[in-house]
Amino acid sequence: MPAQQKKFIFCIAGVLSFACALGIAAAVGTQLWIKGTILCKTGALLVNATGPELEKFIGEIQYGLFYGERVRQCGLGGRPFRFSFFPDLLKIIPASIHVSVILFCTVLIVFALVGTGFFMYNAFGNPYETLHGPVGLYLWSFISCSCSCLIMILFSSEVKIHHLSEKIANYQEGSFIFKTHSEQFEDSFWIILVCFLVHFLNVLLIRLAGFKFPFSKSKESETTTGAVDLMY
User: Half-sphere exposure (CA, 13 Å, Cβ side) for 177?
Assistant: First the structure.
């Protein structure tokens, strides 16, 4: 492939990687990860609410990685309540998983920026082998893909398996019990999925530029070495 086309491909990959870093940084600071509704089960059972009456006992909840907001509905009108994960909710949530999600988000931002720098260096500089050349580009893209995948898996398990929304809704509630009525992932979560796809696309762009995958090179070298050994 001509050098100009390689530069163009690496520039595109670098811009995509930088856009991912900005998108993730913005996503981490928002509360647009989960949005759902919470049913006040105790209040609904007390008045045997059904149909349209049940809506008076369904509140809303929305949160991110650091803070959120919920509207408490128990038949007497909505009461908004803001909360933060640190330090208020650390005792009731799976703290290790939650901290791991934040940690991997930070790692993802760092390696997305590192990948951006190396893509631009390969486009306009004079890269040498190992981590500065194509092997490094594959490595940074693979790490970014892995971090994106881990973030989605860990956060999904925290929300669905550990019932994060219910734990937040029942925080400091003595006489009322709340159950999750509905919940869905919001924009910030889908940004992580888009970043995963972008970094996977970057791997394909590196291959399109004419650089073979590292493991394919190693297989070829092993085959050549084995043939030489057989000759001697």
Answer: 6
Q: What is the pTM of this model?
A: 0.84
In a domain, 37, yes or no: yes
Residue 74 is assigned to a structural domain of this protein: yes
The answer to whether residue 93 is domain-embedded is yes
The phi, psi pair for 186, rounded to 5°, reads -105, -170
Q: How far is CA 8 from CA 73, 119, 133, 203, in A?
A: 55, 10, 16, 15
Counting the structural domains of the chain, the total is 1
Range of the domain at 40: 3-217
Q: Which tokens in the block code for residue 218?
A: 């190693």
CATH number for the domain spanning 135: value is: 1.20.140
224 belongs to a structural domain: no
Which residue's structure tokens are 């790692």?
A: 107
One digit per residue, the tens of pLDDT, for the chain of length 232 reads 667 888 888 899 999 999 999 999 999 999 999 999 999 888 888 877 777 788 888 899 999 999 999 998 887 777 888 999 988 898 899 999 999 999 999 999 999 999 999 888 888 877 665 556 678 888 889 999 999 999 999 999 999 999 999 999 988 887 888 999 899 999 999 999 999 999 999 988 888 877 776 765 444 444 444 443 333 2
Distance between CA atoms of residues 114 and 122, nearest Å: 12
